[in-house]
Amino acid sequence: MRLTPDQAFQIYEAGTFLVQEHGVALDARLVIDFAPMGVSTEKEATAVQTAVGREFAQRLADWCDAGGEDHSLHRLSFLDRSPAGGLSGTLLFHLPAAFQARAVAWFVAWFARFAVKSGKAPYSPTLDFRSGSDPRDSVARQWRLLRPLWGSIDPCAVVGGQPLLDRLAVRSSYRGSLGDIAGARYRTSNTIGPGARRHALRQQLPHASAWRAGRWDQLFTGWELREYRERQNERERRAAFERGLEQRRAETGDPLTLAHINLIARDERHVRDLPPELRLRRRPLWAPLTNVSAEG
Q1: Is residue 241 over pLDDT 70?
Q2: Where are the domains of the chain?
């Protein structure tokens, strides 16, 4: 089986939206080999992935509440089957560096409890986490973690005159077919999925997409971190604008002045309707257009 270009696009959209909206990246990977656990059906494997993700999200919220940090577990889960028929799961998520040691201990304990409760064989998953001092390193790592998932894209899929696999800088060792999965192959948390992106659109603050815009040279340059700051500035600007209008309305009873204020509000709505690429910002969204192909 092959990952479709649209599925690859949706995975990219989840990743780029995460950085733009929340200022963090998918920098941790939990790999689960279900065969040693005695889990052989998709239903069981999906239930395990869902349970461990949900329960870790709750525990992370407890840790973050104590430390005053954002407690959302931004995550993407992926299910695959090996040529031998064994199921494997990958959970990509953002893990604050302060909780790395606790997370490792928590996952080991969770799978130990699962083995006892289910009567399955004891199993310790593989947690791969590296925290860089530079946030740009975390964004680059996110794309590196996603590339193995993109490796199953049809090699004949072409975008902008080049194979999509090359556009996404997928190394040859990652390229190949997927195992048969009857159900959903991947899932995202509500914080980065289509619903979250639609919510941002309803707020007239949709995210920018280098893929959607055909800016292949900007796929993996880390511009999303600048855009995160721009989005924060834009939210502050809008809040100040609304406060100013309300104050002016409260201070006047003159119909002409109120009509003028309404015109200002209408013009602001038109500005907010602009595509994200045309939104006013302190720095350009992307570097000037070049003929350089995307690199990871």
Answers
A1: yes
A2: 5-215, 227-278
Name the nearest CA neighbour of 131 among 107, 108, 104: 104
> Phi/psi at 39 (nearest 5 deg)?
-95, 120
Closest Cα to residue 219, out of 211, 230, 227? 211
Task: Specify whether the CB–CB gap between 209 and 218 falls below 8 A.
Answer: no
pLDDT of residue 123: 86
Q: What is the pLDDT of residue 183?
A: 85
Confidence class for position 68, pLDDT limits 50, 70, 90: low
Q: Which two tokens stand for residue 71?
A: 């407690």
> For residue 12, which of 31, 32, 26 has the smallest C-alpha distance?
26
DSSP secondary structure code for residue 214 in this structure: T
- Looking up tokens 């948390």, which residue turns up? 189
- Say yes or no to pLDDT of 66 above 80: no
Residue 99: partners with Cβ closer than 8 Å, 6 or more residues away: 60, 63, 64
**Angstrom distance (rounded) from CA 138 to CA 294:** 18
Whole-Å CA distances, 208 to 26, 41, 42, 119, 200: 18, 38, 35, 47, 11
Which element (helix H / strand E) includes 93?
strand 87-93
Q: Specify whether the CB–CB gap between 80 and 87 falls below 8 A.
A: yes
First to last CA, the chain: 25
The CB density around residue 182, as the number of other CB atoms within 10 Å, is: 8
- Rounding to the nearest 10 degrees, give the CA dihedral for residues 147, 292, 13, 4: -60
